[in-house]
Amino acid sequence: MKKTCIAIIGLMFSAACFFVACKPDPAIIPSKDISFDIPPGWPQPFYNFENNTLSKNGFELGRKLFFDPRLSRTNTVSCGTCHQPFSAFAQLDHNVSHGVEDKIGTRNSPSLFNLNWHTSFFWDGGVNHLEVQPINPIQNPVEMDENFGNIIVKLSSDADYKARFTATYGNDSINSQRILKALAQFMGMLVSSNSKYDKYMRGEAGGNMTEGELRGLAIFKANCAGCHKEPLFSDFSLRNNGLSVTTANDSGRAIITHSVTDLYKFKVPSLRNLKYSPPYMHDGRFTTLNQVLDHYASGIQKSATLDPSLAEGIRLSKQEREDLKAFLNTLNDEDFVKDPRFQEVL
Amino acid sequence: MKNLILFIFSMGLLTAGCRKKPDPVKPVIQQPEKKTSISFTFKNVVGNELLSLEDTWYRNENGDSIRLSSYKYYVTNFVLVKGDSEYVVPESYYLIDESNPQSKTFTFEGIPAGDYDKIKFMIGVDVARNTSGAQTGALDPIHGMFWDWSTGYIMAKMEGWSPQSGTKQFFYHAGGFKLGKGAQRDVVLELPKKATVIPSYYPHIIIRSDVMEWFKTPTTISIASMNAVMSDLTEVKTIADNYANMFTVEDVMTAVE
Fold it and tell me: For chain A, N or C: smaller number of CB within 10 Å?
């Protein structure tokens, strides 16, 4: 009996070890040639690579994964397909996303920058952490339609990946956590803080605003800054901005909370880099800023959940509108969209 | 001797199970250092019978016929209690998956010696691990217990068939973690006899989990009125309040070396 017990215990030990939640990876091997810097005057970020020590290898692994179509079932759609660097990581000229086999989504792929300050992700704010954000598009049947089991098989047969995972994590084991943390390193490093507005705020060369731009700044502060809060140009809240309900009948935040008080609420997008990232709104219905401003002037649909700040709309004179657009144009960050660190490397 | 080798082999696997930096396991046969440990086995049952997936029809409290295809739940955050003191088992996250017998038994090592009289654990995953990014091991999203569109773990999941369902199928995905509204539940179980942990004594706690409690106490659930549960807070609460009561300790066995 005694011996049998020991044998059973032994077997239990071996069985058990496969189901233990293994402790998190030892810290990523850090390197000094990369750093995440909070731009002067900005608030503390919501995510600052806690439990995901930033390294150049990790960032570069993340970049490779971001642009790798093997993360999709058909090996044709990468994160970068719908998030293009030249479009401030939105997708130019696409109102909604196109996924595998040209399947059409229901929402506009948002631009990606300053993500470490975001307190939630997706237009409905359903996801709570940058590291777990990519799981959704990877698994979504109309986006990449893939699962991590298959991705791990694909990447494990690639010598370059094995080398990169080893350089980043100390060995070539690939799992979803390592993939997601590397992606978070790339995405979190996408900081856009070098627009004319930023230079103006820092008193740097290139930051001289014209009179029209300064008038536009004042108009912005009076009419828009309540939701599009500086310096991120969003307060990341979820609000109903009075868009008409289309046949898609996207109820927004209410999908997550099941609450009628959240009907048609969507996450406030940043106003940075608008020049590169049309079309606008959660379904990409507006292709120009004039259409957006027309909506706020005269298109707002009243409903129980309409944001109170928009009850009267935003009516601007022709001159005010031109000044506001001139100001919004100072939020475009050419350095960011052309940053060689953030481009696809083949 | 045969058993000793088996034991060493098992210890080797224990090291290999966690994917860490390769620590080469030295193939030297030596007397293993005596360690303390405590083991758990979760037995999913229906009344007095072991649960059987796929091939057996059961009747729930409401009289509905059900047959299960999948049954999984998290047990996490184990605490061992002796008198007034508690030992919190670090990193204790397990996914009990009925279709995988190996998932139902696990062992904690390096437990402080003592006579434990009570255990505590959580059904589900704590708030911290629902809000702190990518996880691994039992919490890897690859196990199909993670919502990618509304972040959070499915704490417990039951799927199957029932003629009482309009669709002939039913699924209960009890998810959501927000305090007061979550599907995680704390469990406290008195042990029928003390689990004595000392070197050479290896207690093994057998926990019975009666699947039919999901449908029973405090709220009787009928499949006809509840056949698809996912994120409706009221329905999830009803189910979670029921499964909170499904555990009993069947026995504490002790293997002596």
Answer: C
Gyration radius of chain B's alpha carbons:
20
E strands present in chain A: 238-239, 266-267
The chain A residue lying nearest B151, using CA atoms, is A127
H helices of B83-137, where? 127-130
The answer to whether B174 and B155 are in contact (CB under 8 A) is: yes
Q: Using the structure block, give the residue that is written with the tokens 């997936």.
A: B53
Q: What digits encode the pLDDT tens for the residues B133-167?
A: 999 999 999 999 999 999 999 999 999 999 999 99
Instruction: State whether residue A27 sits within 8 Å of chain B by CB.
Output: no
Six token digits for residue A74: 């058909």
Q: Between chains, do A148 and B141 touch, taking CB under 8 Å as contact?
A: yes
ipTM: 0.86
Tokens 């606008």 correspond to: A280
Q: Verify cis geometry, omega within 30 degrees of 0, for the bond prior to B218.
A: yes
Provide the residue type at A128 as one letter: N
pLDDT digits (tens, 9 = 90+) for A160-188: 999 999 999 999 999 999 999 999 999 99
Give the mutation candidate from A11, A17, A146, A257 for the B interface (greatest B CB count, under 10 A). A17
Residue with tokens 């250092």: B33
Spatial contact of B42 and B75, defined as CB atoms under 8 Å apart: yes
Retrieve residue A31's tokens.
């390197």
Compute the distance between CA of residue B127 and CA of residue B30 in angstroms, rounded to an integer: 43
Q: Which residues does residue B171 pair with via DSSP β-bridges, in sequence order?
A: B159, B228
Cβ-based neighbours of B12, under 8 Å, separated by 6 or more? B25
